[in-house]
Design brief:
The chain is α+β, with helices and mostly antiparallel strands and about 550 residues long. About 65% of the residues lie in helices and about 10% in strands. The chain has 16 helices and twelve strands. Helix 3 packs antiparallel against helix 6. It is elongated.
Length: about 550
C-alpha cells in the first residue's frame, strides 16, 4: 500500500509544480507585452556641436568627437554630410553654369545666349544660397548647444557682411546681364559669356577644395562613429561618389582649367605631392630601421642567446621583413589609402588561404621543428631530402643547399623533417674507412705493415684515436685488409685520397698485386676416334 501512495504523491507534486511554472510564465509574458505596449520615453533632441566651425582643424575635431556617444556622433555625421551634400550641389551648379556659358558662346542668337547666362546665374545663386543657409543653421545650432554667444566670436567673419557681399556681387552680375540685354551686341555677349565661364571654372576649383576639406572632416566623424558601432557605409559610398577630379573632355578649356586648378590647389596637387613625399620618406626610414633592427637582433642572438647561425639568420630576416611590411602599410596610409578593407579582406579569406596553402603551412611547421631541434646549421654538409650538400640558407618554407658541383637546390622543409637527416660535418673528428685487396699469393702481413707505415707518414692522420689495420675477409679473388684511420672533419677527403695513392704506390714497389675478379672455366673435350676424354682449364 505504501508504493501506490508514494506514486500518487509524486504525480500530485509534479502537477502542482508544472501548474505553478505555467502560471509564472504567463505572468512574465503579460508583463513583457504590457511593457512593450507602453510608449517609449521621450529622448532629448540632439543637435550638432562640431559644426560650430566648418573649418575646424582635423586634430581638434578628433579631440571633439572622442567623448561623444554613438547617437551624438550620428547627429554630427548627418550635419557634416549635409554640408558636404550642399557643397556637391554648388559644384554641380557651377558645372551646369559652364555648360550654359558654352551654349551662349556657341549660339548666334543673342537673346538665347542671354537666357542661358541668366539660367546659369540663377542656378548658381540658388545653390550658393542653400549652402549658406545650411551652414548658418548648423553653426547656430552648435552655438546654441554649446552656449556660445555669437557676438563674442568676433574672430569669425560676419555672415551678414558675407551675405551683403554675395548680394552685391549678384546684383552686379545681374546689372551686367541687364545691360547686355538692353544692348544685344554679339561681341559683348560673347565676352560676357567667356568672362562668366572663367569665373565658373575658378569657382569650381575653389569649391572642390572646400569639398575635400569637408570630406576629411566627415571622415574623422565617421571613423569615430564606426569605432563605436555605427553604420557608416552609406556615408563613405557618397564620399567616394562625389570626390575626385572630374574632367569634361568635350571642353578643352574646362579640362585644362580643372587640371591646372588641381595641381595648384592645396587640397589637390599640393596635397598629393606632400603625401607622396611622406610616402617616400616613410619607406626610406623603414629601410633604415629594418637594416639597423636586423643587425642589432643578429648581434644580440649571437652574443647573448647563443643560437645557431641558421636560427639567427631566420629570426633577423623575419624581423626585417615584418618591419618592411609594417612600414609599407604605414606609408600607404600617408597616401590616404584606407587599409581597413584590405585587412577585412585578408581576415575574410584567411580560411580559404589556409586551405590553399596547406602544404606551405606544413613546411612552416617543419621549419619551426628544425629550428627547435637544430639538426644542422649554416655551413654544415648534410644529406637530407635526397640531397647532399652544404647548407647555405633556410627560411620557414624551404632550405637552400649548395652541392659539391656548385648547384643550388631548394628542398621543402617538410621533406627534410619527415626523412632521415645525416649531418656529415656535425662532429670535429671523423673516421676514414678504406679497404685494400691483395692476392692470395701475396704476404698479407707485409701488406699490413706497409699500410701502417703509410699512415704513420701522413701528418693529417690523427694519432688518437689509433688507426685500425687488420685483415678481415677472404673474398673470392682477394684477401681484404681494412684500414680505418681518424682525421679532422675538414681533412677527411684529403686523408682518404692521400692514403689511397700512397698505398697503391708502395704496393707496386713491394710487388704486391691488387687482384681483379677472376673465374676458372673447365672445358671437357672428347676424342671420338679414340674414345678418350680431355679436360682443359681456362682462366678468365
Amino acid at each position: 500500500m505504501r508504493l501506490p501512495k508514494l506514486l500518487l504523491f509524486i504525480v500530485f507534486f509534479c502537477f502542482v509544480f508544472l501548474s505553478g511554472a505555467q502560471i509564472q510564465a504567463q505572468e512574465t509574458k503579460e508583463k513583457a507585452d504590457a511593457k512593450q505596449a507602453e510608449p517609449p520615453s521621450p529622448v532629448k533632441e540632439l543637435k550638432p556641436v562640431t559644426t560650430i566651425d566648418p573649418l575646424v582643424p582635423l586634430d581638434q575635431l578628433r579631440i571633439m568627437v572622442r567623448p561623444l556617444t554613438k547617437d551624438e556622433l550620428q547627429v554630427e555625421a548627418n550635419a557634416w554630410f549635409e554640408l558636404l551634400r550642399n557643397k556637391a550641389r554648388q559644384i554641380a551648379a557651377a558645372r551646369l553654369g559652364v555648360k550654359k556659358t558654352n551654349e551662349a558662346i556657341a549660339t548666334n542668337d543673342d537673346q538665347q545666349a542671354l537666357d542661358s547666362l541668366k539660367k546659369a546665374e540663377t542656378v548658381q545663386h540658388m545653390a550658393d544660397e542653400k549652402a549658406r543657409q545650411t551652414e548658418e543653421e548648423l553653426t547656430k545650432q552648435a552655438q546654441e548647444t554649446l552656449g556660445v554667444d555669437v557676438a563674442v566670436d568676433a574672430a569669425r567673419p560676419d555672415p551678414a557682411k558675407a551675405e551683403e557681399g554675395t548680394t552685391a556681387s549678384t546684383e552686379e552680375k545681374s546689372a551686367t546681364t541687364a545691360d547686355s540685354t538692353s544692348t544685344p551686341d554679339n561681341a559683348t555677349t560673347t565676352q560676357s559669356a567667356e568672362a562668366m565661364k572663367a569665373a565658373f571654372l575658378q569657382n569650381i576649383n575653389r569649391l572642390q577644395d572646400e569639398r575635400t576639406a569637408l570630406s576629411d572632416r566627415l571622415e574623422v566623424v565617421l571613423t569615430s562613429l564606426a569605432a563605436k558601432g555605427g553604420d557608416v557605409e552609406t556615408y563613405r559610398k557618397y564620399i567616394a561618389a562625389v570626390s575626385g577630379l572630374e574632367l569634361d573632355t568635350s571642353d578643352a578649356s574646362a579640362a585644362w582649367s580643372g587640371i591646372k586648378g588641381w595641381f595648384v590647389s592645396k587640397e589637390g596637387g599640393q596635397r598629393m605631392g606632400w603625401n607622396l613625399g611622406k610616402f617616400l620618406m616613410i619607406l626610406f626610414l623603414t629601410w633604415v630601421v629594418a637594416r639597423i633592427g636586423s643587425t642589432v637582433i643578429s648581434w644580440l642572438l649571437e652574443r647573448k642567446v647563443r643560437l645557431t647561425q641558421l636560427a639567427e639568420n631566420l629570426i633577423s630576416g623575419t624581423i626585417r621583413n615584418v618591419i618592411y611590411l609594417v612600414g609599407f602599410a604605414v606609408a600607404l596610409t600617408a597616401l590616404e589609402v584606407d587599409m581597413t578593407p584590405v585587412l577585412a579582406a585578408i581576415g575574410a579569406t584567411g580560411l580559404v588561404v589556409g586551405l590553399a596553402l596547406q602544404g606551405t603551412l606544413s613546411n612552416f611547421a617543419s621549419g619551426l621543428m628544425i629550428l627547435i631541434n637544430r639538426p644542422f646549421d649554416v655551413g654544415d654538409v648534410v644529406t637530407a631530402g635526397g640531397v647532399t650538400g652544404t647548407v647555405k640558407q633556410m627560411n620557414l618554407v624551404s632550405t637552400n643547399f649548395r652541392t659539391f658541383d656548385n648547384q643550388t637546390i631548394h628542398v621543402p622543409n617538410n621533406s627534410i623533417w619527415n626523412g632521415v637527416i645525416t649531418n656529415i660535418t656535425a662532429n670535429k673528428v671523423r673516421r676514414v674507412d678504406l679497404e685494400f685487396c691483395i692476392g692470395y699469393s701475396d704476404d698479407f702481413e707485409q701488406a699490413e705493415q706497409i699500410i701502417r707505415d703509410v699512415l704513420a707518414d701522413q701528418e693529417l692522420v690523427l694519432r688518437e684515436p689509433e688507426a685500425v689495420v687488420v685483415t678481415h675477409a677472404l673474398a673470392d679473388s682477394s684477401v681484404n685488409i681494412v684500414c680505418r684511420p681518424w682525421a679532422k672533419t675538414t681533412d677527411w677527403w684529403a686523408v682518404k685520397t692521400a692514403v689511397t695513392r700512397e698505398v697503391k704506390r708502395r704496393f707496386d714497389q713491394a710487388g704486391i698485386s691488387i687482384p681483379f675478379p677472376q673465374q676458372d672455366i673447365h672445358v671437357y673435350s672428347t676424342d671420338a676416334s679414340k674414345g678418350n676424354g680431355k679436360i682443359e682449364t681456362v682462366s678468365k
